[in-house]
Design brief:
By secondary structure, the chain is mostly helical. The chain is built from 22 helices and no strands. The protein is globular, with a radius of gyration of 22 Å.
C-alpha cells in the first residue's frame, strides 16, 4: 500500500512510509499481534498508577479503623489514620515524583541507544522488581522510598508501548492502534478492585505481589518475542536489523523478493549521534518544537489533575470504595471507544479544548453539589472527559513530532501529567474534611490549562515525519506560520 501523500516526489527515492508499507503490506496478523502484545504493557502501567487507591486507602476524615476498606492498607497497619496529611500523601507523591524523575532520565534512551522495545522490556522488569520489594516495607518512609523507585522505573512504560505499537503499523492504522493501549490501561485499572475484593481481609502486600509477578513474566516475553520499531532502526542506520524486522513482519501475500530492491532505494543512515540527551537537544534547538512541547505540556498538566487526582478523592464520596473505583475504571472503556471514533473524524485541537472545559465544569459542580444523586454522575462525567482528553493529547503529541524525537516528546507530555500526580495527593490530603477543595482546584486547573491547546497546530490526516528537517519542510509546503 503506497502513501497517497508521499514526502518525496515520484522522481525521488520513495519515502520511508512507502517503503515500510510496501514491505509489510496491509494490516495483517503479525502486525496486529505485535501491536496488541506491546500495548499490553499499559495493563501493568495502570495497576502501578492506581494501586494506592487500595493499598494506601484513607479514612473519611476520622480515626476509626472500621471505615477502612476490608483489604488492610498501610494506614491501618502503621496507624496513619490520625497522622499529618503530608505523611498520608507522601507515598503517592513519592511515586509520581519518581515517575517525573524517571521520565527525564530514561525516556530519551528509547530515542537514542536502547530503542523502544528494549526500554519497554527493561522498564517492566525493573518496575515489577521494585513493586515486589515495596511489599517488604516495614514503615511509611521505606514504603515511600520504594514507591519512588517503582515510579522511576515505570515512567517509560506507557510512552514506549504507545510509540512502539504505532510505529509497527502503516500510517492509516496508527490512530486506531494507539487506542489498544488505552483499552488495556482500562482493564488494568478494572483489575484492581477485583484483586482487592478477592484479597479483602488480607495484607496490602499481596496486592503488590499479584500485580508485579505477572509484569515480571511479561517483560521477558517482550524481550524475546516483540520486534523493534523499524522506523527507529532506520533512523539509527541499523539497516541489517531494519531489513530483518520488515522481513519478519511482511505480509505473506507480499512478494518477498521485492523487499530488498525497495530497501536498496532508500538511504539508511543515522541522523543523530548516540547521545542519551540528543533528543532533548534537538527539541530545545528548534523554536517551533519548543513552542509545541510547552503548550502540550501545559494542557497535559491540567488533564492530569483530573485523571490522576479524581481517583484519590473517591473516598470522599458517599459510596462503597470498590464500587466507586469500578465505576471510574469502567468509564475509561467508553473513553477509549470514543477516542477511537473521534481520532479519525474530528480535529484534535477543538476536541481537546472542549473535553477539558466540560471536565472542568463537572469537577467544579462536584464541589458545589453534595447530593449523591448529582455528585456521582458529575464525578463520572468529569473523569470520563478527562480520560478521553488524555488519550487524545497523547496521540496528538505523537503526531506533532518526528520519529527522531517522538518518544522523548511524548514522554515529556506524560511527565507533565505525572507532575500533576505529585501535587494531586497533597491537595486531596490537605482537603481533609473540606471535600469540596480538591474538586474546585482540579476543575479550575483543567479548564484553564486546556485552553493552551489553541497554540498547537492541527495534525489530523497529516503525514508523520522522521527527521526535524522533514517536519520543517512539511510546514513550508503547507504554508503554516508557526
Amino acid at each position: 500500500m503506497t502513501d497517497p501523500n508521499p514526502l518525496l516526489s515520484e522522481t525521488e527515492s520513495p519515502a520511508l512510509d512507502d517503503t515500510i508499507e510496501h514491505c509489510i503490506g496491509d494490516f495483517g496478523y503479525t502486525q496486529f499481534l505485535q501491536s496488541v502484545v506491546s500495548s499490553f504493557a499499559w495493563f501493568f502501567d495502570a495497576q502501578q498508577t492506581f494501586i494506592a487507591v487500595f493499598t494506601d486507602a484513607l479514612t473519611n476524615g476520622t480515626c476509626s479503623p472500621d471505615e477502612l476498606p476490608d483489604c488492610r492498607s498501610i494506614v491501618s497497619e502503621w496507624s496513619l489514620d490520625c497522622s499529618d496529611s503530608i505523611i498520608r500523601g507522601l507515598p503517592s507523591s513519592s511515586f509520581f515524583l519518581g515517575c517525573l524523575s524517571g521520565g527525564f532520565l530514561l525516556s530519551t534512551l528509547a530515542d537514542s541507544s536502547l530503542g523502544r522495545k528494549n526500554l519497554l522490556a527493561l522498564s517492566c522488569l525493573l518496575t515489577s522488581l521494585a513493586g515486589i520489594i515495596t511489599s517488604l516495607s516495614t514503615n511509611v518512609l521505606t514504603y515511600a522510598a520504594f514507591r519512588f523507585l517503582s515510579g522511576f522505573f515505570r515512567s517509560a512504560i506507557g510512552t514506549c508501548a504507545l510509540v512502539l505499537a504505532t510505529e509497527l503499523v502503516a500510517r492509516k492504522y496508527r490512530g486506531s492502534i494507539g487506542i489498544f493501549g488505552f483499552v488495556w490501561f482500562t482493564f488494568g485499572f478494572l483489575s484492581l478492585p477485583l484483586i482487592a475484593f478477592l484479597l479483602k481481609g488480607y495484607s496490602w502486600r499481596l496486592i503488590y505481589l499479584c500485580t508485579c509477578i505477572p509484569c515480571l513474566i511479561y517483560s521477558v516475553f517482550v524481550y524475546f518475542f516483540v520486534h523493534e520499531s523499524p522506523r527507529w532502526l532506520f533512523v539509527k542506520g541499523r539497516k541489517e536489523e531494519f531489513i530483518k524486522t520488515l522481513t519478519a513482519m511482511a505480509d505473506k501475500r507480499t512478494v518477498s523478493h521485492k523487499i530488498s530492491s525497495l530497501l536498496n532505494s532508500v538511504e539508511c543512515k543515522p541522523h543523530e549521534e548516540y547521545n542519551i540527551y540528543s533528543a532533548f537537544k534537538i527539541l530545545l534547538s528548534k523554536w517551533w518544537a519548543l513552542r509545541r512541547l510547552a503548550a502540550a505540556m501545559v494542557v497535559a498538566f491540567g488533564l492530569g489533575t483530573v485523571y490522576l487526582g479524581m481517583p484519590l478523592t473517591l473516598g470522599n464520596l458517599s459510596m462503597n470504595l470498590y464500587l466507586n473505583v469500578t465505576l471510574n475504571a469502567l468509564s475509561e472503556l467508553p473513553a477509549s471507544v470514543l477516542t477511537f471514533f473521534l481520532i479519525g473524524k474530528v480535529n484534535r485541537k477543538g476536541c481537546l479544548m472542549g473535553l477539558a472545559v466540560v471536565s472542568g465544569i463537572c469537577s467544579v459542580g462536584c464541589a458545589v453539589w453534595w447530593d449523591m444523586g448529582i455528585q456521582i454522575p458529575l464525578e463520572l462525567l468529569c473523569f470520563f472527559c478527562g480520560c478521553t482528553a488524555v488519550n487524545v493529547v497523547l496521540i496528538y503529541t505523537m503526531e506533532l513530532f518526528p520519529t527522531c524525537v517522538r518518544n522523548s516528546a511524548v514522554a515529556m507530555v506524560r511527565q507533565a501529567i505525572v507532575f500533576s500526580g505529585v501535587v494531586s495527593p497533597l491537595v486531596v490530603a490537605a482537603g481533609g474534611e473540606n471535600g469540596w477543595l480538591p474538586y474546585g482546584v482540579f476543575g479550575a486547573t483543567i479548564g484553564v490549562c486546556g485552553l493552551f491547546a489553541v497554540w498547537l497546530p492541527e495534525t489530523r490526516g497529516r503525514t508523520l515525519c522522521d527527521t526535524m528537517e522533514e517536519e520543517e519542510e512539511l510546514q513550508y509546503r503547507h504554508s503554516v506560520d508557526y
